[in-house]
Design brief:
The chain is mainly beta. The chain contains no helices and ten strands. A ten-stranded antiparallel barrel has the order 1-2-3-4-5-6-7-8-9-10.
């Protein structure tokens, strides 16, 4: 049986390029957390103006050794993060579609029904050219009732 609850997400995204100061985006937003029948944890929230993806729904499906990130709406994408692996996907924006290779450099999480923390480190290559280092750090806590 699935359990779904209201949560608060603290999302910090960081992008680093060679010789350039890292670009950091921080977002505090409401969302939902669902514990699936197979033990997977699904975190879901709406992007905002702050992230430049307003009108986009973001969903992380967290399993033991992999995290799938899907975005639907203004931005359409699916990225699979697996420890030590490279995965390819299409990334669709209002300005065009590109092939993206994601190489996971770090994947760690301590999530349970009460919340927790997840961290994903990865490089992105667009059309096989690495564009930089990226990191997500997400803290989750139950919303106050």
């Amino acid at each position: 049986m699935k359990t779904k609850k209201e949560i608060i997400l603290f999302v910090k995204g960081e992008q680093s390029y060679d010789g350039v100061e890292p670009e950091v985006t921080e977002l505090i937003t409401e969302g939902t957390m669902t514990i699936g029948d197979g033990g997977e944890i699904i975190l879901e929230y709406q992007e905002s103006e702050l992230t430049g993806m307003e009108g986009t729904n973001t969903r992380f499906i967290v399993n033991e050794d992999a995290v799938e990130l899907t975005r639907t709406g203004m931005v359409e994408s699916r990225m699979l993060f697996e420890r030590g692996k490279r995965n390819s996907s299409l990334y669709e924006t209002p300005w065009g579609t590109m092939m993206v290779d994601v190489a996971t450099t770090r994947l760690a999480h301590r999530l349970n029904e009460q919340g927790g923390v997840m961290e994903i480190g990865f490089t992105i290559a667009v059309n096989h050219q690495v564009t930089g280092e990226n990191r997500f750090k997400i803290r989750v806590k139950e919303a106050a009732r």
